[in-house]
Amino acid sequence: MDFKLTEEHIMIRDAARDFAKTELLPGVIERDEKQEFPKELIKKMGDLGFLGMMASPEYGGGGMDTISYVLAMEEISKIDASASVMISVNNSLVCWGLDTFGNEEQKKKYLSKLTTGEKLGAFCLSEPEAGSDATSQRTTAIDKGDHYILNGTKNWITNGSSADYYLVIAQTDKEKKHKGINAFIVEKDSEGFEIGPKEQKLGIRGSDTHSLNFNDVKVPKENRIGEDGFGFKFAMKTLSGGRIGIAAQALGIAAGAYELARDYSKQRKAFGTEICNHQAIAFKLADMHTSIEASRHMVMKAAWDKDQGQNYDLSGAMAKLYASKTAMDVTVEAVQVHGGNGYVKEYHVERLMRDAKITQIYEGTSEIQKIVISRSILKD
Ligand SMILES: Cc1cc2nc3c(=O)[nH]c(=O)nc-3n(C[C@H](O)[C@H](O)[C@H](O)COP(=O)(O)OP(=O)(O)OC[C@H]3O[C@@H](n4cnc5c(N)ncnc54)[C@H](O)[C@@H]3O)c2cc1C
Predict the structure, then answer these.
(1) Pocket mutation for ligand 1, best pick of 93, 132, 169, 372 (most atoms within 8 Å of C-beta)
(2) pLDDT tens column, 323-367
């Protein structure tokens, strides 16, 4: 057993930390307030290789392992979870999905642009009536020979308006239930494709979340991913890896809030001493640090499982469940350590507290993670 990071891992972690501090920290409060994320910043993330970290180098990707990816996700999420959700969707859902299951033409045409940040991707599974129960897809794709016709609505799609390419899950044969579902690559300028208004959100407000409408959208047959009926498996496999990225995001949010609380407690005085000298505050910091460290081990273990070619459904679900609860608990306590200042935007912890909540909801709610975990431990 070896808990040491390689020199390359440390280099990647430090590069992400540096990028987050120099490029993301300035303006993070304004982006949260205005619910915006400038295109130039997305381009910078692409130029630095954060948008296609694990993808194959022959398609412009970084060819890195999952450990490298979660290290970068943690550092970026400490500062700006809106940036990290964009990175996460593009890396673990869109690029990984295409790299693993796309054909040569799809990789050349789409993946090679998504890995470099020239284009951005979105992953469209959820619908008004199909969130946790992803099999209840109402979006239909009717086979018309050399193309499909898509109709339906997708909800809460990250990168909804900033994306160029959309991986869309749709029902092609209702009778076959989940075996009659397919995944398609849809281009933004397709006729009949409409982007709904931006959602007004509690957290990760810099990232754009939209509903999407498909009104007789024509999608060429060559844009279907995998064999006919592969769509549900595609979505589940992709999300299983995506959860490791969201677990790392939760870890980063928790670690960012903890670091701010720790530093603040060493400066702020009450009753004639720095507040960290009050045991109530010191014990909060001890609890925060312990649950963050436990989360970090779980995130790393899940990433390692994936890198070793081992099954990571269980370790990924556990990491997401635990790290997202840690993010919620730690950020609430970080606000408490800051007292009144914790409630004020310029101290950052209130934003991190709002950002933490989503990690218990998307890419499978905590209840769904418990279903995955319990099924896995009870199956033998
Ligand atoms: C900001 C944001 C970004 C998102 N980005 C994307 C995206 O890019 N792409 C995408 O496809 N989706 C995205 N989503 C959607 C997200 O994945 C879903 O919201 C999530 O899966 C939950 O689905 P739901 O909202 O329909 O909740 P529901 O499924 O209606 O669940 C409601 C509650 O019931 C619980 N529940 C449901 N079923 C069970 C059960 N069997 N046992 C126990 N409890 C259960 C849930 O855990 C939850 O607490 C995003 C959502 C948000 C808010």
Answers:
(1) 132
(2) 999 999 999 999 999 999 999 999 999 999 999 999 999 999 999
Alpha carbon distance 186, 317 (integer Å): 29
Round to whole Å and give the CA distance between 142 and 153: 15
pTM above 0.90, yes or no: yes
The residue ranges of DSSP E strands in the chain, in sequence order, are 121-124, 140-143, 147-158, 165-171, 181-187, 193-198, 209-220, 269-270, 273-274
Whole-angstrom Cα distance, residue 371 to residue 375? 6
Residue type (1 letter), 303: A
Structure confidence at residue 183 (pLDDT) = 98
Burial of 368 (0-12, 13-18, 19+ CB in 10 A): buried
Ligand 1, CB cutoff 6 Å, lining residues: 89, 123-126, 131-132, 156-158, 201, 204, 209, 358, 361-363, 365, 367-368
| Distance from the alpha carbon of residue 244 to the mean position of ligand 1, in angstroms | 17
What is the residue whose two structure tokens read 């450990």? 67
Q: Which residues of 79-102 are buried (b: 16+ CB within 10 A; e: fewer)?
A: bbbbbbbbbbbbbbbbbbbbbbbb
Kindly state the tokens that stand for 172.
Answer: 């092609």
pLDDT of 380 > 80? The answer is no
- Exactly one of 105, 333, 363, 367 is catalytic; which is it? 363
DSSP 180: G
- pLDDT score of 1: 84
For residues 214 and 248, give the distance between their C-alpha atoms in angstroms, rounded to a whole number.
33
Amino acid sitting at position 195: I
Question: Cα dihedral sign for 311, 313, 318, 320?
Answer: positive
Distance, in Å, from the CA atom of 359 to the CA atom of 321, rounded to the nearest integer, reads: 9
